[in-house]
Amino acid sequence: QVQLQESGPGLVKPSQTLSLTCTVSGGSITTNFYYWSWIRQPPGKGLEWIGYIAYSGSTYYSPSLKSRTSISRDTSKNQFTLQLSSVTPEDTAVYYCARAVGRPGAMRGEYDYRGQGTQVTVSS
Length: 124
Known about the structure:
The chain is mainly β. The chain has 1 helix and 11 strands; from the N terminus they run E-E-E-E-E-E-E-E-E-H-E-E. Strands 2, 4, 5, 6, 9, 10 and 11 form a 7-stranded mixed β-sheet that branches.
């Protein structure tokens, strides 16, 4: 059974960098052909895809967030990390990490496993 767990600060000040880590258990993040995504849900809105890091280590980001987003991984810890820079209150959301099978699934938001989510609030 694959499990994903998000961790990181729940409160970030405006203009700072939001950093979240997803720890994966029950499966390796380097196994073909899984895509490891970050998604978020602002209050009262739908899910928004942020980006992914593939089993190969390649990354792809939402065009609307690309200039502020970086996703990396630590294969020795089986973790992948989201960094979102220059945050504003509009980045307040519940952030999730999730796994998709294949790139088409990742692009369509078809996840077979997802973490429980972590609330991040951007406020001074």
